[in-house]
Write a structure and sequence with these properties.
The complex is a heterodimer of chains A (404) and B (340).
Chain A: H1 77-93, H2 170-266, H3 268-279, H4 285-330, H5 335-358, H6 363-380, H7 383-403
Helix pairs in contact in A: 4-5, 4-7, 5-7, 6-7
Chain B: H1 27-35, H2 40-53, H3 57-66, H4 68-75, H5 81-95, H6 98-106, H7 109-113, H8 122-136, H9 139-147, H10 151-160, H11 163-177, H12 182-186, H13 189-196, H14 202-216, H15 219-227, H16 230-237, H17 243-256, H18 260-268, H19 272-280, H20 287-297, H21 301-308, H22 311-317, H23 323-336
Classes of the chains: A mainly alpha (404), B mainly alpha (340).
Chain lengths: 404, 340
């Protein structure tokens, strides 16, 4: 239930309800701002104007009667001035109602005095005493360091007492910490020791392996060496054996060849000898001598003799020819009977030659005899015997040749 | 303010010589960038941090993936000693892991390390040789060392280096010469090793004998070994007190005796008695090698007649737990009792 209001405060509804400020519709403000590039054909309402000049803001004496603004449009300054003038005129026309006096008039003989009743007296005067004072820090002085600010102790001091055994038992509490500390240290140490041991094991293993490897390697090399020696030995023996075989083969071949050659050449000597004998290598020296020296000489002598004979005969022929030719010339005056004699005469030397040759006997004796005999004849008739001699020689030569 | 949560990281500024590590996966890339920086202190601190991280194989893998090896290779030639020392140490720690070894081979770090052989600082050289040693244990690593042409310088270093480094060099050489021996022979390795056989330190003697073993296991290595009269020295080493030295010396003899000249020089040096003593010892490491050496000597007629008297020693070997020894003893007996 609402509290009852005092009756004098309730206003009797004498006047119809009226607004202290007329209701007005809000300006039809567009919901969205116009795009910025649109032209401004109309002046936009100034939303945030100077508060000192805002007509909506009441200005002046707070208890003055104020009429709500008639229109919401901002008034041009002339209108505002007019309004102000109107108001002043109104004020002058209707003087203020006298203020109801608060205090009664003073009694006669007394004065009212204004008295200040506050706790502290205040001097009221128009001019306030003003004294200017200034202060200035010294120039060129460094700002000293700020002192350590220790705030004043505030609060109350309270103390507590911890009895023995109340807080914690050190031995029990320290155990886990110690365990962790020592455990970690020991673990780390153990790890390192294990690592080192592992390394040492690995090294030992490696060494053992190396030893084994070296031993095996040495064995290998020894066997290799042995093998090499044996192989070399074998090779040498094989070569020797081959050499031996080769020599043996050579020897057999030589023997075979020798036997064959012997046999082949067995009848070589007789055949050689017979060939030689046949080809005249073995000769009787006397016979050879006779054949090589004597007979050619003989033949050359015989030839010479015969040549002489032939020469003689040729000479004879030429003599006879010349004689016959001379006779022919001599008898050419009597050509007819002499023509038959010429061939007969020609026939005669040819007949005479064989007859003369028939008389010859053995070549040697004849030649020597004829030479002796012919020589003195040659002095007288050198041409005839000379011509006959070669002919005789010739014939003798031919006869000798025939006998041979 | 103290927190009840236990942090995974060390408290900050625990070691001012180390660079601060970034969180998680970012740690190594950041270190990589710091390594490339121009300031010396940054590089040193980054290297110190790296050396700590590289103990973990996962970090090694990550480091190689990122390409740390390139920056480390560049730092190998740095003028500052600490930088070089730490770089070589980091590389050595990487080479302890298999991933690291693979990465080192692929990135050709071995050839980059050849320049450090003559480094004035001892620790750098030691680390370098440790790296070579670890790499040579892998076959690809040994091939890499051979390809980088490291054998001649290493052989030359045999005469001049300190003892600890000498042991490392000898180990490296023994692993590499298992593959190929020609370069070493060309630089006169056999003569250098012959000197080391009489070194006062037992470890060096043993390792030198091991290298000779590897050299003489190749056919072309056997001839220089016989020619340089190493065999008498090896025979004298058979009576050495250290069992490892004995084992290596016997092994070297075993290979050298394959050639006829080797055998004759061994007979001249009277190798049979010490070898027999070694065979008689049951727990000797050199037993197997000694048996093999005697088998080789038994192929000579003089050897055979001497050994015919000692066949009982070989009979004892037939009880050895190792099968290899039994087989070796059997072949030895066969060789001794062989009649042509």
């Amino acid at each position: 239930m609402l509290p009852a209001r005092p009756p004098e405060l309730t206003v009797a509804p004498a006047l119809p309800y009226s607004y202290s400020s007329q209701p007005r519709s809000l300006l039809a403000r567009p919901k969205y701002r116009a795009p910025p590039d649109a032209a401004e054909p109309e002046k936009q309402r100034v939303c945030y104007g100077n508060i000192m000049r805002d007509p909506r803001v009441a200005r002046g004496y707070a208890l003055a009667v104020r009429l709500p603004p008639q229109s919401t449009q901002p008034h041009p300054p002339e209108v505002q001035k007019q309004k102000g003038a109107q108001k002043r005129a109104l004020v002058r026309k209707h003087p203020k109602e006298p203020i109801r006096p608060g205090t009664p008039e003073p009694v006669e003989g007394r004065e009212h005095v204004y008295v200040q009743t506050e706790l502290y007296l205040e001097e009221i005067c128009d001019h306030v005493l003003e004294v200017d004072g200034e202060c200035q820090t010294d120039e060129f002085l460094d700002r000293p360091p700020t002192p350590l600010f220790i705030p004043a102790k505030t609060g109350k001091d309270i103390a507590t007492q911890i009895e023995e055994g109340e807080l914690f038992d050190f031995d029990i509490e320290v155990k886990p910490i110690l365990e962790v500390l020592i455990g970690k240290t020991v673990e780390q140490a153990l790890l390192e020791v294990m690592e080192e041991e592992e390394l040492a094991q690995l090294r030992a293993h490696q060494r053992a392996f190396i030893e084994l490897r070296n031993a095996e390697f040495a064995e290998l090399q020894r066997l290799e060496e042995q093998d090499r020696r044996i192989r070399e030995e074998k090779e040498r023996r094989r070569l020797e054996h081959l050499e031996k075989l080769r020599k043996q083969k050579e020897t057999t071949e030589k023997i075979a060849a020798r036997a064959f050659a012997k046999r082949y050449l067995a009848d070589l000597i007789p055949s050689v000898f017979s060939n030689l004998y046949d080809s005249g290598f073995f000769y009787d020296p006397i016979e050879r001598d006779i054949e090589t020296k004597f007979l050619p000489w003989l033949m050359s002598e015989v030839e010479e003799t015969l040549q002489k004979k032939v020469l003689g005969r040729t000479m004879l022929d030429s003599l006879i020819r010349t004689v016959v030719e001379k006779r022919l010339d001599a008898f050419s005056c009597q050509p007819l009977p002499d023509q038959t004699e010429a061939p007969a005469k020609e026939l005669r030397p040819t007949d005479a030659a064989p007859q003369v040759s028939g008389e010859t006997d053995a070549a040697d004796q004849l030649v020597t005899g004829k030479e002796e005999t012919d020589q003195p004849v040659a002095e007288e008739q050198p041409s005839d015997p000379i011509s006959s001699q070669p002919e005789e020689l010739d014939q003798a030569g031919t006869q000798d040749l025939e006998t041979e | 303010m103290a927190q009840p949560r236990i942090s995974a990281y060390l408290p900050p500024d625990i070691d001012p010589t180390k660079a601060a590590l970034a969180f998680g996966r970012r740690a190594l890339p950041k270190l990589n960038e710091e390594l490339r920086s121009a300031e010396l202190l940054t590089q040193q601190r980054a290297l110190m941090a790296l050396c700590d991280l590289v103990h973990d194989p996962e970090k090694v893998y990550q480091a190689i993936e990122i390409g740390f090896l390139g920056s480390l290779k560049a730092l190998l030639g740095h003028p500052d000693n600490t930088v070089r020392q730490k770089t070589t140490e980091a590389l050595y720690l990487m080479s302890m892991h298999s991933v690291g070894r693979q990465g080192l081979i692929e990135n050709g770090v071995i050839s980059a390390l050849t320049g450090l052989l003559d480094d004035p600082v001892d620790i750098c050289r030691k680390n370098t040789h440790q790296i070579f040693d670890m790499m040579a244990k892998l076959p690809e690593g040994a091939a890499g060392v051979l390809q980088a042409g490291l054998i001649p310088p290493l052989v030359l270093k045999l005469q001049t280096e300190l003892e600890e480094i000498l042991e490392l060099i000898l180990d490296t050489l023994s692993n590499c010469l298992r593959m190929q021996v020609s370069e070493a022979l060309a630089t006169g390795a056999v003569a250098a090793l012959k000197e080391k056989l009489t070194h006062p330190s037992a470890a060096i003697r043993g390792k030198a004998a091991q290298v000779l073993l590897e050299i003489s296991s190749h056919p072309e290595g056997k001839l220089p070994v016989c020619e340089e009269e190493v065999i008498p020295v090896l025979v004298s080493l058979l009576e050495d007190k250290d069992p490892a030295v004995q084992a290596s010396a016997t092994g070297a003899l075993m290979f050298a005796l394959v050639t006829p000249q080797g055998r004759s020089s061994a007979m001249a040096a009277e190798a049979i008695p010490p070898l027999l003593k070694l065979v008689a010892e049951e727990t000797s490491k050199a037993r197997l090698n000694a048996i093999k050496a005697l088998t080789l000597l038994a192929e000579l007629p003089e050897g055979r007649e001497t050994l015919l008297d000692h066949t009982d020693t070989f009979q004892e070997c037939l009880d050895d737990p190792r099968e290899v020894v039994i087989r070796a003893a059997q072949s030895a007996i066969r060789a001794i009792e062989w009649k042509p």
